[in-house]
Each structure stands twice: as structure tokens, then as C-alpha cells.
Design a protein that fits this description.
Helices cover 61% and strands 10% of the residues. By secondary structure, the chain is mainly α. It is elongated. It comes from Didymodactylos carnosus.
Length: 277
């Protein structure tokens, strides 16, 4: 049996297409693979970084006010109202603290300024993403140019912010490990020069590793039970999906390993110094 609807299948991500009739079909249905859903299996929850559309999208009731929304959406709005201001205040205070002269005498201070900026940008981008998702589904935001622009850019920028935050935290951990190893021989001037060079290099490399993301994002209209929804989906080939998985794995695993080994080094070296004295 063939599941391609005579070669006219609109199903995505390797889904099987079923028709109500072999000769004169009037409707079709997509049978999704694991980790995919939607009328055309266009939404994916697979991988390290599922989109906010995939997490909350189908919990939103189109054209319904906040009081008529599902408990998931209500809880998401309440949590966002609590977390976003706290995150913004925390990021601003961190930025003010680490911009003082004393922390900026070493590279670690510059890395901490960088993490403050990435934390702030992550909160701001997430707020934009969440607001646009609700507006597009509840208020029927239909400006295609704007929606396409945010579809291509917001998730891309959010991923850059998250990965940059991971790498900068790894740089902080690594420099602290080097500081405790070298002790009084630690060169603050050299550390500062390395940090000023490392931050833009990390930003460029992180951005380049994710440059495929906006290119493969596009809008798709879905009509189900007389309800129209607009989704921002990733429409890519299997090879691009494998590359994206490899990039996610690299960013997560390498930064985690750096943090782990730096922490172990600091603990062991600190214990030896205490024993010596």
C-alpha cells in the first residue's frame, strides 16, 4: 500500500498520507511520525530546542479572550508575568555590578558582563516571541511580512543568546580554574586581552553555526475544525536536520564538559592548597 496520496501529499516530515477514496478522494489525513503533530505533521517536538509554537501552540484557543483560554495558557501567562520582570531586574543589576572597574581588571569580568547581556537579551527575545505567538493566535495578527520576519529572526536570535550564555559561563569557569592553578603568576593583562578577543570570536562562530536556521523557517496556514492558525515551522531536509542536531549537541556537550572539568580542577586544586597550609 502506498501512503503518498498519488504523489500529491501535503504531509510533512515523512508522514503517511491517507485518502478516503483511492479513485475520487475528497479528503486526506496525515499519520505523523513520533515527535511530530499537526494536520500536516508540520510541528516538531524533536531535538534540544523545540519552538514555543510546538510547546504551547495547540493549547491556545483562537479568537478567544484570556478568560476562555486553557489552563496551560493561563499558567504560562501568569508565570511569564512573574519571571520576566525578575529576569529583567536581575540582568540589569548584574550588568551594573560587573561594569565596575574592579571586575573589569581581568577577563572574567568581561565574560560576566557578556553573560549579563545575553541573559537580558534572552528575556527580551522570549517576551517578544511569547507576545507575538499569543497575538497571532488569539488576536488574529495577519501581517504576513511581519510574521515572516519574526519567524525567521526571533528563534534564531534566541538560540544565539542561549548558546552564547553557555559559552561565556564556560569561559568564566575555565578562567577561574586557570587562576587557581597559576596563583600569583596569573597574568591579568593577558587574561583581559584574551577575553576581548574571545567574546567576538565566540559570537561569530555561534552565529555561523546557526546560519541555516532562519533560511529554513517559514509560515504555514493550518485550518482545522474551522479554526485557522498560522505556524512558524522549520522546513528542512533530513541532512539539515542531522546537522542541526549535531550543532545542538556540540554546543551543549562541549560547554558542559568545560564546566565539569573546570569545577573538578578548582575543587582538587583548592583542596591541595588547603592541605599545604
Amino acid at each position: 500500500m502506498k501512503y503518498d496520496c498519488h504523489g500529491q501529499s501535503n504531509c510533512k516530515n515523512g508522514a503517511k498520507c491517507l485518502q478516503d477514496s483511492a479513485n475520487c478522494p475528497t479528503t486526506y489525513m496525515c499519520v505523523c511520525s513520533p515527535c511530530f503533530y499537526g494536520t500536516r505533521c508540520e510541528i516538531s517536538t524533536n531535538g534540544f530546542s523545540p519552538s514555543l509554537d510546538a510547546i504551547l501552540g495547540y493549547h491556545i484557543k483562537p479568537h478567544a479572550n484570556i478568560h476562555r483560554q486553557t489552563i496551560v495558557i493561563k499558567m504560562s501567562i501568569v508565570l511569564s508575568i512573574i519571571v520576566i520582570p525578575i529576569g529583567l531586574i536581575s540582568g540589569i543589576l548584574s550588568l551594573i555590578t560587573f561594569r565596575n572597574k574592579e571586575p573589569c581588571k581581568t577577563g572574567c569580568g568581561y565574560y560576566l558582563i557578556g553573560t549579563s547581556i545575553t541573559s537580558l537579551s534572552t528575556i527580551i527575545i522570549f517576551t517578544c516571541k511569547f507576545s507575538i505567538l499569543l497575538s497571532a493566535q488569539i488576536l488574529s495578527l495577519t501581517n504576513q511580512s511581519f510574521l515572516q520576519f519574526q519567524c525567521s529572526s526571533i528563534d534564531f536570535l534566541l538560540r544565539i543568546s542561549l548558546y552564547m550564555d553557555q559559552w561565556l559561563n564556560s569561559c568564566v569557569a575555565m578562567e577561574r580554574a586557570i587562576t587557581i592553578i597559576k596563583g600569583v603568576n596569573f597574568n591579568k593583562v593577558k587574561s583581559l586581552k584574551v577575553a576581548k578577543l574571545m567574546i567576538p570570536i565566540l559570537f561569530i562562530l555561534t552565529s555561523c553555526s546557526l546560519i541555516h536556521d532562519p533560511y529554513h523557517r517559514r509560515l504555514i496556514d493550518e485550518i482545522y475544525n474551522d479554526e485557522k492558525r498560522i505556524w512558524c515551522i522549520v522546513d528542512s531536509t533530513a541532512n539539515v536536520q542531522k546537522y542541526d542536531y549535531a550543532v545542538n549537541s556540540f554546543h551543549f556537550c562541549v560547554s558542559f564538559i568545560i564546566n565539569l572539568f573546570s569545577a573538578i580542577t578548582i575543587i582538587i586544586k583548592s583542596a591541595r592548597l588547603r592541605t599545604a597550609f
